[in-house]
Specification:
With about 250 residues, the chain is α/β, with parallel strands linked by helices. It contains 9 helices and 7 strands; from the N terminus they run E-H-E-H-E-H-E-H-E-H-H-E-H-H-H-E. Strands 3-2-1-4-5-6-7 form a 7-stranded parallel β-sheet, with helices on both faces. The mean pLDDT is about 95. The protein binds 1,4-dihydronicotinamide adenine dinucleotide.
């Protein structure tokens, strides 16, 4: 597949499930070849192709622990050995380790910052070189409304997601001269394994804060990512697009 020079190539971190998996499927649907990086494959890559009605072989899983700089370097080198160009980078991998600050352990702070923020720094540093020399490319970093609004019990997560916004705006300014666009999606409350752990009463109370009155679907985030990665968004860079049913307006 990668020998077709007209075909676009994408890297998605954390594509094994949830929002990341839907992002992979939505890019495959556009005919884009996708490498997704996660610690486990989740559904087999060819199953994702089937779900997207894309040719088999268009999706590739690469084993990667975003918490480990050596693993990220190795995974990106594996991808770059298979494709000479990278048109799209989506930093989606993310974790939570919630707790009130007075009881928060160092590891809970460091783990979240390492995966959510340092992980994106590592991929952007390497792939921005590729995109800058191509003089084209688009990066989408998945933040959260929590990075905009804050949330009690999530100081570590909010710091990582707010950090991602400042990071992305700075990167957008650095790379604009090379025609590389960098944007952020800030999802609200989306139905995935990450939010499944919340008790029903917490979900109900969260719903009352959403003007559209319902929890979002991972496909609704993926559609927004696909838009920002497409030529339809060719004049959009350095922006934060909330996909949150109006929660953070
Ligand atoms: P999820 O828990 O279902 O999926 C997380 C993804 O990150 C998985 O694919 C997992 O493999 C990957 N991941 C986690 N740690 C990793 C590591 N060390 N190395 C490699 N991959 C790793 O979560 P969900 O909901 O799909 O979240 C995706 C992104 O969206 C995250 O960045 C999250 O913070 C963000 N988000 C989610 C919201 C929600 O309501 N579900 C709301 C706002 C933001």
């Amino acid at each position: 597949m990668s020998t077709d020079i007209k075909r676009k190539s994408a890297i998605v971190t954390g594509g094994s499930r949830g929002i990341g998996r839907e992002i992979v499927i939505s890019l495959l649907r556009e005919g884009i070849e996708v490498w997704y990086l996660s610690r486990s494959e989740g559904l087999p890559a060819d199953e994702l192709c089937k779900m997207a009605e894309a040719p088999s072989g268009l999706a590739h899983w690469v084993n990667c622990d975003m918490a480990d700089a050596g693993s990220v370097e190795e995974a990106l080198s594996t991808v770059l050995a298979q494709t000479s160009r990278v048109d799209i980078l989506v930093n989606n991998a993310g974790i939570t380790r919630d707790g009130l600050i007075m009881r928060m352990k160092d590891e809970a702070w460091e783990d979240v910052l390492r995966v959510n923020l340092t992980g994106a720094f590592l991929t952007c540093r390497k792939i921005s070189r590729v995109m800058a020399s191509q003089r084209t490319g688009t990066i989408v970093n998945i933040s959260s409304v929590v990075g905009i609004m804050g949330n009690g019990g999530q100081t570590n997560y909010a710091a990582s997601k707010a950090g991602l916004i400042g990071f992305s705006k700075s990167l957008a300014r650095e790379l604009a001269g090379r025609s590389v666009r960098v944007n952020v999606i800030a999802p609200g409350f989306i139905e995935t394994d990450m939010t499944d752990v919340l008790p029903e009463n917490a979900k109900d109370s969260l719903k009352t804060q959403i003007p559209l009155g319902r929890i979002g679907d991972a496909t609704e985030v993926a559609q927004a990512v696909a838009f920002l990665c497409s030529d339809k968004a060719s004049y959009i860079t350095g922006q934060v697009l909330a996909v949150d049913g109006g929660m953070a307006m």
